[in-house]
Amino acid sequence: MSGITFFSTKNLEKIKEFYTKKIDMDLWLDQGGCIILKHGNMLLGFCEGAEIDKGGTITFFYEDKKKVDQMYIKFKDSARSEPKENEKFHIYNFFAEDVEGRTIEFQTFLHPIKPYLGGEELLRGRRSVRDFKDKEVPEEILSKIFEACRFSPTSRNAQGYYFIPICDREVIKFMASRRGGSSKPIQEAPMAVAVCCDPEETLRPIQDGCIAAYHFILTAWAYGLGTCWIAAMDREDVKEKLGIPKDHYVATVTPLGYPQKIPKTPLRKPKESFIKKEL
Ligand SMILES: Cc1cc2nc3c(=O)[nH]c(=O)nc-3n(C[C@H](O)[C@H](O)[C@H](O)COP(=O)(O)O)c2cc1C
Q1: Which of 81, 122, 184, 233 has CA atoms 20 to 30 A from the CA of 95?
Q2: How confident is the model over 28-57, as pLDDT tens digits?
Q3: Mean pLDDT throughout 157-176?
């Protein structure tokens, strides 16, 4: 289920310019007398009318304090105060006004939150993370991620994949040292997860294991957690350390934790280069 919150405006053009240019909202739909704007999971509608709806507060939330500070620089003139921590709600926020005097708020949550990203944002926004905050992954978040990983597709629905959470620092250090710089990100995280697959349960252990690993990576991102695929961990020393049978497939051992910062998107090829013409 989805929804839109509508407000009445006396100046649709000005509102459109404000929310798209200053707040970077996307114009999701232009219906003529009404526009619908999108910011993450938020759909906000404005319709031309005789009155200006000013009730309530339109709150935009961001993944970290830095983004809130960046918005403060943009809104310094109309901000009612500098951004600060609100202990009661465990948020970091400030209030300002839009061009018609509505209250707008910019904030970040200072505690883990449930997933809110739409599909496209999740697919486009996920990054490989190699620097992590010194903050444990809560048990209940981990459990929710594994719950969602039940829905990874597998060959003939075999479901032969499994996860090994690794929290022991000595084991983490061992994993991080397997492949030099390539496996170093494991060292930077509070924990790691090995994604494996049992060939006795499926005819396609490599495909099932890799897809389950990507499913895990995407789900973790939806919960605000960073991962990084570490390649070539299907090795004897890794298996021996983790007690994995020799014939099982280790798709990856990924670090898992809250990103220190969200990395910039590495350059991507245009979609035309992925779509080959029929011969
Ligand atoms: C099969 C595979 C192997 C990878 N191996 C490593 C690795 O060993 N170490 C590492 O730091 N990143 C590794 N990565 C992450 C890639 O470098 C990363 O996905 C790529 O640069 C694109 O960045 P993005 O994931 O942020 O979009 C791997 C990714 C994939 C899919």
Answers
A1: 122
A2: 999 999 999 999 889 999 999 999 999 999
A3: 98
Does ligand 1 lie within 6 Å of residue 228's CB atom? yes
Distance 169 CA to ligand 1 centre (A): 23
Distance from Cα 59 to the centre of ligand 1, integer Å? 34
209 touches ligand 1 (CB under 6 Å)? no
Contact 97, 104 (CB under 8 A): yes
Answer whether 62's CB lies under 8 Å from 262's CB. no
Q: Residue 127 CA: which ligand 1 atom is closest?
A: 26
Cα-trace Rg, the chain: 23
pLDDT tier at 146 (50, 70, 90 boundaries)?
very high
Q: Determine whether the shortest distance from the Cβ of 159 to ligand 1 is under 6 A.
A: no
How many other C-beta atoms lie within 10 A of the C-beta of residue 142? Answer: 19
Q: Which residues pair with 93 in a beta bridge?
A: 84, 107
pLDDT tens digits along 208-266: 999 999 999 999 999 999 999 999 999 999 999 999 999 999 999 999 999 999 999 99
Ligand 1 neighbour 185 (Cβ under 6 A)? yes
Helix axes 139-148, 205-222, angle to 10 degrees: 130
Q: Whose CA is nearest to atom 20 of ligand 1?
A: 128
